[in-house]
Structures
1.
Amino acid sequence: MNIFGSLMIGLGLVSQQVVAQDGGSTPCPPSVVREASPSEIRTFFQARQMKVLSFFGYSGAGYEDEARMLSEATKVLDQADPRDTLVNIGATLEGIGAVYDIAKRKGFTTTGIVSTEARDNQVPLARCVDYVFFVKDGSWGGFLPGTTQLSPTSAAMVENSDVLVAIGGGEVARDELRVAKQAGKAVQFIPADMNHAAAIEKAKKKGQPVPTEFGGAAAEAFD
């Protein structure tokens, strides 16, 4: 067995078939690490010896124009080679997670790094993510409160990414992109609105003013 195979066993990767939301099966069974330390995640990516292309954007906030988001992601993927590039996102189904399906159809191996908050809150995983790493984290990511230090999840995302592409995005993406830029990593931002109706409904439920801007906080990293 090669070093990669030994690593998969050592990390407890388990292959499983995921049932799609429409009740049908998907041909993209993931191997799930229910929890992995930053050093284990680092070792995984280093063992692959491939470039890591990571996508950032809205998840639960959704996209006002999802078709355009997918078109922009496809353009980025068309410039990469599945033979030497991994596609990494935040593992969950909603929003930017739809890019996993395109990446798999193009032959990319896919990975996801996400907070244990997703596991603990039973947030659905994307259908076509091959390897999921849950990072023990008391937050969903971004800067730790009152600091400019990234949470464990966001730190793992930035550390293990070579190229970072954001299509819109909120506060977590903003913080990650700022740190990535400071570290000299290749960063690209593509403006995109979050879902307007969802943002308005969320504000109303929280008793907040109805938003009139929907471009997301990630754009602040490029002001």
2.
Amino acid sequence: MSRTLADLRVTFIAGTLGQGGAERQLYLILRALVGCGTKLRLLTLTAGEFWEPRIAELGVPIEHVGASPSRWMRLARIVRAVRRERPDIVQSQHFYANLYAAAAGRLCGSPSIGAIRGNLDSEMAASGRLLGSLGLRLPTALAANSASACVRARDAGARQAAVAMLPNAVAVPSGAEPRAAGKPPVLLTAGRLVPQKRVDRLLRALGMLRARGTPFRAMIAGDGPERAALASQSEALKLANGSVAFVGRVDDLSQHYLRADLLVLTSDHEGTPNVVLEAMAYGLPVVATRVGGVPEVVEHERTGILVERDDEAGLASALQRLIEDPQARAQMGAAGRARVEALYSTEALPGHLARLYGSVLGESIAATR
């Protein structure tokens, strides 16, 4: 007789509970497992961050294990916590926490699941050569949020059978309000204003559109170290006259998705960006660079348009095409919403988790009884 998610005990280890994509996915995973009756515990290296009170509201016990700057002291505390619970699985939510999950699991006799949340090369480099390699090889299994990340992990030395796909999930709204007629189409980009996101590339493409006389408005949601330089660039390109608005950090993007006509992502590298899935769930077509797991989500010419990373002229042409063709925007937006409902909705998450845990435990795990 197979077990269900309600029969399992899972201890999660999170490096941070700040306002990021990996942390949002952790919240959604925990919420799905709570709904299935899984016995949960969360160990976190930080305290008092954005997602902590929201996770506490789910009824998930949280223990702070990162008070000491010493990795060995942190590991000792994590091992004690895992030994108390004797979970069926120890699961990391951040790559740099993989070693903690793997070591604690081995010392306590529990299989471990490591995480690959973004660009693997960047994550391994940030951990250092030795620790990055161990974080890839020591967990019982690895959960990556894109097929391209799975392939890269195997190429980098992870065991072939140990890498599994755990897609990101988003809540699909019940409906989207129609755009008011007669307004210039609104382009939205959202995320931390850091070099990786290459918002400078977007601004240059918007400068090309302004030079052509193409009507548009653009919203740049997010904050970060690049904001001042990007604002200066916008002024230099004569985009600061109402064409481009920096709206700052936004905790909830839902109202911005409702006001926008399309989403733009111009990153140098990505995993599976939550903002793309969320925008598609709201019926927005996407124009994005062909990087990381983005082509697995955005179907070129069906749910959006993909451009090569350094093709700024191609980016401007793709934006102009959708700005000038409301029918194409509507068709791509509807196809994108349907794709998210089928593959990336929160309703599908328990099934994904059951398959992942079943593969790690070597048995059949059902989502529900």
3.
Amino acid sequence: MTALAIESAKPVIRRSLAEGLLSCVQFQREDGEQLAFGQALHSFIAAYTLQCQAAGEETRLTDVSRLASEAWARTHGLLQSRWQEFLDLCQHFAESRPAQLGTLMHVEHTITLDVGFAIVTCTVDRIDRTDYGDPDEEPRRIQTSDWKSERAEMDHDFQARWYTVLEFLTMPALEEVVFAVHALRDWWVPEPYIFRRGDLDHWWSTTLQGLKARLDAQNAPAVGGPACPGCAKRTSCSQATAVAAGIPETQDQADELFQEALRLEEALAVRKQGLAHFYSGRREQVVYGKEVGFLAPREPHFVVTAEPMKVVKFLNRRHMSGEDVIKVDNEKVNRGMQEKLAEAGLGRREYSKPAFRWRNHVPARDERKRKKQEEESAQ
């Protein structure tokens, strides 16, 4: 478990540990190189923001190199070949994000709370006051900012709730919290979470019940699930998910895995070509629940056969939007429009040429199609 400098016999539970324990009681957070990189970046951002605050300036670009070097030097577990990447990211942060000192309350602010069976805690990257109230009074609205150096799309719902609850419980005057995730490597801005006091009461009580139950059953067997990718035991645990067990730990492993993926991709292409040659003179078959062979689409698609201007004139005479021409392939929305264009001789419905593929075999769908064809032939 994660340790803090708190004199207590009770276990100390951070957000990351809590989220993992609720999924698997045997979860153990992995303290790898990627985590160290994130810690170094957070260390720089905190030092840079405090430097701006001490100088009373929104930017201090001349201090970036020094502060980045100091943050890098005091962080253990780093891959030294990533130094330039780290420095570039620090420079990007300083150039793109003013300190916004007018609303700043805290940087790297640690919150702890005794919940009886454990000490729960979190470290908030930054807190801003957003109610524009009297600085001598407790804030009623704040924004919590969390810096992310990862590029993958991740779920931050649990973190947003955990941080927000601790803020509500330790700041009695607080009425509303905005939790904003900042993806430092991308320009896109995820939608912020907005919580008002009382919104998370039921979630918090349920979460604490779950955590206490996990701590009371520490010898329970491991359970494979969403916590596996971040667990230090993922390569040795028999219950780890296949994806987690296959996550590379070093750049060499990642390169080897990528090379294997390329080989598998090429092998799949070769097998598709061989199967296409085999089925070129045979009827399609149902194999392992899949229809395989040279298959035509199950439904025809609509094709505009007239010149664009003829279609436009047709629509204009009926006071219809030109967007209907663009969306004619949308079956659900524009089926009626397709029928009108077909009646006017401007389009038709046709089947695409059969091509080698495989798709799920759905006997009920085939039976409905057969009955429909029989009814049409009987008429």
